[in-house]
Amino acid sequence: MEGNNLIVPNELSNEDIKNLIYTVRGKKVMLDSDVAMLYHCGTKYVNRIVKRNIERFPEDFCFQLNEKEFEVLRCQFVTLNGNGRGQHRKYLPYVFTEQGIAMLSALLKSDVAVSVSVNIMKAFIEMRKLLMINGQVFERLTNMEYKLLEHDKKVDEVFNQLQTEQAIAIR
User: Fold this and answer.
1) Is residue 155 part of a domain?
2) pLDDT tens digit string along 1-54?
């Protein structure tokens, strides 16, 4: 992914960035290689900055994926072509939360990093709003479903009462 797919910050859309955000351990995160590509630097460089400033990256900012998590993500975006040198990762990737990306951008200190960070933050905010709206819609649907169940019970009670009264009237 490094080098070949450089994206100019001005051409970066929220959709482009949102497609690079995954959910791992219940958190919205971006892969180190995707962050490096967006910041126009190497993945090794990004990870070296993190390791040199590890006190600035607690686990809720940045963490390394385990093998199972990486396999699940790799199946989602099919990263390996199967042949060619340098196609396989030697180490499990790190992922960054929104706060981790903000911390990383402060350490990178380049015009590209500033511009890209602003776009990444906007994408995270947009996704958070979308999730909140979806949560409200699901809550309303759940309430409607509950009310429908209550109405069904009442209709059944009325129907049973009518059947009972009809049976009594026939006798």
Assistant:
1) no
2) 444 444 444 466 777 778 888 889 988 898 999 888 888 888 999 999 999 999
Global model pTM greater than 0.85: no
CATH classification of the domain holding 88 = 3.10.260
- Indicate the number of domains in the chain: 1
Helices (H), the chain: 14-18, 32-38, 43-52, 67-77, 98-108, 111-170
Residue 140 lies in a domain: no
Close Cβ partners of 162 (under 8 Å, ≥ 6 residues apart): none
15-24 contacts: CB < 8 A, separation 24 or more? 17/119, 17/120, 17/122, 17/123, 18/123, 18/126, 18/127, 21/123, 21/124, 21/127, 22/73, 22/76, 22/95, 24/65, 24/69, 24/73, 24/95
Residue 160 domain-assigned (yes or no): no
Residues spanned by the domain of 92: 9-132
Q: Are the CB atoms for 63 and 94 separated by under 8 Å?
A: yes
Q: How far out from the chain centre does Cα 170 lie?
A: 64
